[in-house]
Amino acid sequence: MKFKAIFTDLDDTLLTSKGIISKEDKEMIIEAQKKGVKFILASGRPTFAMLNLSKELELDKYKSYILSFNGGVVMECSNNKILFEEALSKEDIHKLYDFSKENKLHIITYFDKDIISETTSEYIDVEVNLTGMNHRLVKDFKMEVNRSAIKCIILGEPSYLKKMEKELKEKYGAEYSIAISKPFFLEVTKRGIDKGNTLKRLIDKLNIKQEETIAVGDSYNDLSMLNAAGLAIAVDNAKPEIKEVADYITTSNDENGMANLIKKYILNI
Fold this sequence. Notes:
Radius of gyration: 18 Å
Structural class: alpha/beta
Number of helices: 11
Strand order of the largest sheet: 5-4-3-2-1-12-13-14
Mean pLDDT: 97
Shape: globular
Low-confidence stretches: none
């Protein structure tokens, strides 16, 4: 099979535990693009927080793509054109805020280059550090969030958040796509917006068949993407449930997992 597109998660998948792309992974990603393979960064991160990585991997030069906010946005890197975008309404975000307050959880959303929250926590600090975005602390979240935004994250202690995921899905599963990424991040987008459905939208536009795609991930918000791709690959550090659905397990994010799978499935070496 000749694969034409690779979709990859970032944190704990492509990025090492130090939050960088290894030299070997970078070289192989550029080599794959030289051979005509589209390379798509598919992350829960906001678009802004993926731009430097896309430049580093020369996605603009090879006309590849960013799939951000867990599939809420697709951007063409060669011209920064937004090909697809679907947001939560102001009312949606206020409803999720109420849920977070009732259950003593934190909530954030994103406006432009800012992360908006009414509270501070070690978990919000993780997102601020990962994205490099400005943290705008506000007195009244509902008053500040007066327009739509692509995604919210509800944050809390991992074991408690897992229980709240079940409760949120029971209450609002018909309205939103809900998935844990990091153990303390519960990510929420509009119903039907996830990495898998947006993968399908993009490959339809590019006239790429499902069986010609590879998806790589490590956590629960990658599950839809792995199920939608022709070849599902988990990094060795992935959650056990993710490994179970994978067709192949590559080496970990700290052991050039991306370079090794590109050598195997793209370069045949």
